[in-house]
Structure formats: C-alpha cells, structure tokens
Amino acid sequence: MATRIDIANHRYTPARIIQMRIKTYIIIALTAMLYSGCAILSPDKIPTIPYGMKIDLSKSGNVYETTVKVKEKAQYYFFLGFAVDESNKTDKDQMFDFLRGARSFYNNTTIPIKLTIRKADDNELIIEKIYQTNGLYSHGSSYIKRDIKSFSLKKGIYNIRLETLKDIPFLEGREFFFSITNPKR
Do 168 and 151 share a structural domain? Predict the structure, then answer.
C-alpha cells in the first residue's frame, strides 16, 4: 500500500506530489519565457531601421545574421562602415589610401561580400548576390562609409545574412560595421 501524506485534509501519494511539482515547474518556466522578451514571442523587440552591427571584414567566411523590421515602404541604403581613429591622422590616411587603392601595396581594394535578404513571414528571397564593394561613399571624422546597394523594401520583417568572402590582413584588428539607413528619415 502506498504511503499517503495529509495536507490540509487532502491525501496525496508521493507520485501525485511529484506530478504536481512537475506541473508547477512547467508553469514557472513558461511564465519566465513569456516575460523574457524573446523576439519570437515579442515582435516589438525586433530592431528597426536605422540599424547597425559590428562585423569583422578581415577574414573570409565570417557570417552575420540579423532580423530587422521595416516600418514603411521606402528606399533603404546598405553600407559598410570603417571606423578610424580621429586623433591619429596616419590611421585615417592609411584607411583612405587602402579604400581608394592609392598606394601600390594596396593593389586590390575591393571587398567582396555576399548579401542575402529574405522576407521573414514567407521566406521569400529578395536578393542573394555577391557585391564587390569599392570606392568611398562618404566619411566623417571617425568613420568612412562604403556603399553596398540600395533596395526598395516593403513594410515587414526581413532576415538579413552577410558573409565575408576574402581574407584581407590589412583590416585585422580594425573596427567595422554593417548598416542600413533610410536617408529620408
């Protein structure tokens, strides 16, 4: 005969007590997940444009994936940003020379990247293409921009994947970012 435990005039077997504890743990775990701010459970946590993330352009095969929310149909600009030390003129000059291909030892300033954009709700492929980025788009005192491409995107949620395709030792240890902007905002 199984041992019974009396709790407030209710009789529970040890198996029933274990079953109740498991249900309690499941309820606690589900509650924690709901309040954790998970992007899957809370679409409001998905970043919107303008958006930027740090990347490493020095090594081939680096893959960066993100999800962004587009709030309105518009033309969006995708670009690479190169951080420079504004207090070090030599650093800035070297980066300008590298990106322009101005010196003979920087014979190839093209930075190839593969960009894939998919609509998140139906996995529709918007673009999957290798871009040979080159030239300068614009610059400020602490960064230099290199244009990738501009796209017209409709309102919705998009999965974006960026992959580096070439080893570039000169860029090792430097700070870069991938950004998406809407210049009209």
Answer: yes
